[in-house]
């Protein structure tokens, strides 16, 4: 699937004994909307993110007995240096603009909007949330992508 998926899974496996010993563990995996729906020219990326989403659900069920919660946050287009460096040519910039136009909120997300969700999932207020993939995507996952 790819090193990102494999590394994430192995890191979870390595953390398990420590999280179990803590008595109240929590893992938040960073996924992508690409794991839910088709994104042009990103088949392998999407497959690895889909696998991460499924691992989130499986580990949540397997590790609930150890009081370890596992969730994923799946962003869409977030205004980061990666997006800025990608959208340097007119064609790439136009591609990003088309993706934003398909997003119901009609804008890129901010890094703080993703980090706020990650932080929430780590707080006691989220102690009954496990096995969820939460989309921070301006609504694109409910709007669809042709």
From TrEMBL:
One of its GO terms (molecular function) is oxidoreductase activity. It holds the Pfam family adh_short_C2. InterPro entries: NAD(P)-bd_dom_sf (IPR036291), Sc_DH/Rdtase_CS (IPR020904), SDR_fam (IPR002347), TR (IPR045000). The chain crosses the membrane at residues 27-47. Keywords: Membrane, NADP, Oxidoreductase, Transmembrane, Transmembrane helix. It comes from the Eukaryota. PROSITE patterns: ADH_SHORT. PANTHER family: NAD(P)-BINDING ROSSMANN-FOLD PROTEIN, TROPINONE REDUCTASE. This is Tropinone reductase-like protein. It comes from Abeliophyllum distichum. The lineage of its organism: Eukaryota, Viridiplantae, Streptophyta, Embryophyta, Tracheophyta.
């Amino acid at each position: 699937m790819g090193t990102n998926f494999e590394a994430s899974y192995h890191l979870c496996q390595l953390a398990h004994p420590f999280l179990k010993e803590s008595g109240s563990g929590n893992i938040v995996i960073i996924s992508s909307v690409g794991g839910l729906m088709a994104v042009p020219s990103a088949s392998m990326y999407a497959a690895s993110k889909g696998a991460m989403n499924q691992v989130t659900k499986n580990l949540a069920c397997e590790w609930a007995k150890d009081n370890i919660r596992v969730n994923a946050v799946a962003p869409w287009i977030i205004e980061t240096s990666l997006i800025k460096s990608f959208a340097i040519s007119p064609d790439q910039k136009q591609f990003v603009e088309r993706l934003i136009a398909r997003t119901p909120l009609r804008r890129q997300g901010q890094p703080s909007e993703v980090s706020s969700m990650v932080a929430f999932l780590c707080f006691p207020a989220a102690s009954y949330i496990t096995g969820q993939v939460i989309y921070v995507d301006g609504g694109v996952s409910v709007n669809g992508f042709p």
